[in-house]
Amino acid sequence: MENSKKYKEIITASTKLGLTSFGGPTAHLGYFREEYVNKRKWLDDKLYADLVALCQFLPGPASSQVGIAIGLLRGGLLGGILSWIGFTLPSVLLLMGFAWLITTVGSFDSGWLSGLKIVAVAVVAHALLGMGKSLTPDRPRITIAFLAAALTLLIPTALGQIFIIVGSGIIGYFMYKKDKTPDSIHIPIKIGKRAGIVAWILFFALLVLTPLFRPFFSSTLYSIFDIFYRIGSIVFGGGHVVLPMLEREVVPSGWMSADAFITGYGAAQAVPGPLFTLASYLGQIMADVPGAIIATIAMFLPSFLLVIGTLPFWSVIRTKSAVQASLKGVNAAVVGILLAALYDPVFVSAIQDHYDFIIALIAFGLLSYYKLAPWIVVVITAVLGAAVHYLI
Predict the structure, then answer these.
(1) Which pick of 11, 261, 271, 387 has the fewest CB atoms within 10 Å?
(2) Which domain holds residue 156?
(3) What is the pTM of this model?
(4) Could you tell me where the DSSP H helices lie in the chain?
């Protein structure tokens, strides 16, 4: 009875957050703190800050991983699953519905769809500024970011981005290995180290073996699982950084047009919850409802495995200077990859003339200086795009 009460509390709290958490991962973490720390008292600020540090250390969607971790602490493995479902499902259903609408309409030339593409320019630029301030606070990391941006544009492949991230981590290690590391903290998790090791083995097994066996399977759903699991496993920096990785997997291969991709990214700004549910939209276009389900599960499965695998060891890992130093280089590279994405595919796909650029400037100003919620900016930009389309 006590467990069922906990599970009901977890699904209720996480669904509330999934329906109301607009504004991207940083805003999500603020919503989480208000709900789980201030209101429900499930954990204190120190433990919450440590969970946030863990999830920023791991690849994947940081806010979703924090939600999963809190669910794990509160209700074990099932608690983590329920926490993820509640936070993720609302945006999954909305984006699947939007993808169905787009494929039914069959055209990406209408003004309001143009507005959704334009708003992506403002949102990515806004995210770039915010991430740049926190992740590239000194000249060495700014240099890493600029080099990463240049290399991302010169080597426009997912494999190239992996090498950029790994190389930046190595540079960060040598530059920052003498910096002071934080003290350890006890995390009261019910999952043991043995379960953590199993999770790590499964994580790497799927990451390595799935693409190796892909040539032997002609199944579209297998290909979808491979694409989204691999990207969910290697992307650092949150939803905005996943944009260039996904684009290079699904657009050049002919799964969808660049217009369809950017339109979905714009729509993802208008819904609450994690931006990684863009996978649901893309999967729906690639293979209808089964594709959306497989893409969503594949995108978030690495997050589950990484959180389960790392939590039992995190108290020790986070005190290692080598880990912290490498992470500084990786985070700087993330900013560079996002800078490259701002140009290609976002800007080149969305901005066709000076009217589009004016709308993008308005959207950026509303986000950055008027501090409007992203979903409101999306609606305004869609209306402006439609107005320009029909009046000019």
Answers:
(1) 387
(2) 2-183+191-391
(3) 0.75
(4) 2-20, 24-32, 45-57, 62-105, 111-135, 139-154, 158-176, 193-213, 220-234, 239-250, 258-268, 278-310, 314-317, 321-341, 348-350, 354-368, 374-391
